[in-house]
Specification:
5-stranded antiparallel sheet, Methane Monooxygenase Hydroxylase, Chain G, domain 1, Thrombin, subunit H, about 200 residues, two-stranded antiparallel sheet, alpha+beta, 7 helices
């Protein structure tokens, strides 16, 4: 009689569990391996990042030190979605310095910090075009945020992005901007009617 193989639980992480690795985002622990490196036996988490087609082996002893963590709780996801509804907080420093700060937030693996990057770099269709580097950072942050929300909420990444965009569009400032744009269009229509 064959027994069902139970997921191995080590240091709080278990096989088949989704985790967040700060530099790469959401991955799945597919196995725990033991390897001998330089005469020392090491136990390693084998983590697969499906979307990036990448496999990473992380020594168990280093997992916490590198910032590997479990997926965010639902209340953290709610907080992140609430943050992106807020007003963008853009510092008046040189772009290169801000870009470094944004990149550090993205690579921190902290969902709340990543949501701040999404909020600060989001551009509504009525706003000026983003530079290439702004767009790259925005898309990286949006992707990281969507992957984690997708894994936590057990929805597709497309649905997670839709959820994020819905929250972005609920920002009071963006709602006001859409209202102003609608008024401008209405005013233009009246002006054209008067001219005719």
């Amino acid at each position: 009689m064959a027994t069902a193989k139970k997921p191995a639980v080590r240091n709080g992480f278990k096989t088949n569990e989704h985790i967040v690795y700060p530099a790469h985002g959401v991955g799945q622990i597919v196995a725990v391996e033991e390897q001998e490196i330089a005469g020392m036996k090491l136990e390693l988490y084998v983590i697969v990042f499906e979307k990036d087609k990448m496999t990473l082996r992380v020594p168990m002893a280093k997992a916490e030190q590198v910032g590997m963590r479990k997926l965010a709780e639902d209340d953290t996801v709610d907080k992140a979605l609430e943050i992106i509804k807020g007003r963008a907080r853009v510092k008046r420093t040189m772009w290169s310095r801000r870009a470094q700060e944004y990149e550090a937030k993205i690579n921190s693996g902290d969902l709340v910090a990543i949501s701040e990057v999404v909020r600060d770099l989001h551009r509504a269709s009525s706003q000026p075009e983003q530079s290439y580097s702004e767009r790259q950072l925005y898309e990286a942050a949006l992707d990281r945020m969507a992957r984690e929300i997708s894994a936590v909420s057990r929805i597709t990444e497309t649905e997670a992005i839709r959820r994020i965009e819905d929250s972005l569009n609920k920002s009071p400032k963006r709602i006001a901007a859409r209202g102003d744009a609608a008024e401008d269009v209405a005013d233009e229509g009246e002006d054209e009617a008067e001219a005719a």
